[in-house]
Amino acid sequence: MYCRVIVEDVRLQPVNVAMRQFRFLNHTGDLAMEIYGENLKDLFENAGMALFSVMTDRSRIRKRVERSIDLRYGDRETLMVDWLGELLYLHDVEGLLFKRFDVVSIEQGCFKALAWGEPFQSDRHVIRTGVKAVTFHQLGIQEDGGTWRARVILDL
Fold first, then answer.
1. pLDDT, tens digit, for every residue of 71-113?
2. Selecting from 2.60.120.280, 3.40.50.2300, 3.55.10.10, 3.10.450.50, what CATH number does the domain 17-155 have?
3. Cβ atoms within 10 Å, residue 121
4. How many C-beta atoms lie closer than 10 Å to residue 147's C-beta?
5. Please, what is the end-to-end C-alpha distance for the chain in angstroms?
6. Which pTM does this prediction carry?
7. Rounded to whole angstroms, how far apart are CA atoms 14 and 90?
């Protein structure tokens, strides 16, 4: 695996959100991501950035294509899997890599976001790690003292 993996205790630890947006954790056969945000909007935007940081060097992606993503949800955890799953679907089917995300709204069971990126180009982009799926295993989202944290495990 070419992404940087930080081996740490898998329990959620207090963190200063201003210091990081996400980190990768060791997980047998898969990759666990711990994602942070000052609010739910930031949390979901940072989750999108974490997903594509696993797959490629996001600094090489240009914002040439915009996609609007609208989802309905019952709970935040299912929404996280659906959100990342939709981004992964757009990557798998349309060959898109995303650099930037803007969650427009998360309210009353409706989620709307915009994602900017470009199609994969073999001369500009390198796929570091292929992601097969976003899982529900050990999935969690919680708010603690004004900091939102999520744990998401990717099947590689």
1. 999 999 999 999 999 999 999 999 999 999 999 999 999 999 9
2. 3.55.10.10
3. 12
4. 18
5. 9
6. 0.83
7. 33
